């Protein structure tokens, strides 16, 4: 008999095959076998406006004036940001900017350097 893995979400042993996917009847989780282990090994590549790959700890420069949500101030073009941290989500750069404090930025509005 073909041995199926336990559910990665709830660890149930009652997993069954439905076409090319595996299904857990207890928590209704569906997945493709082998896909989750491949996804765990992949890291999202974050690139700046020029296509340079960004990494944690890089310094970047803002390439256009950005309105700060919830404030009347503007983050000016040319502002340098040191020691960025990459995060998942729409705003993929987490940083602290002198004079503004902690902030999240989109990588498309910065350049490396």
TrEMBL record:
Gene3D superfamilies: 2.20.25.10, SH3 Domains. Pfam families: YjdM (PF03831), Zn_Ribbon_YjdM (PF08274). It comes from the Bacteria. Residues 46-112 form the Protein YjdM C-terminal domain. InterPro entries: YjdM, YjdM_C, YjdM_N. Residues 3-32 form the Protein YjdM N-terminal domain. Belongs to the YjdM family. NCBIfam families: phnA. This is Protein YjdM.
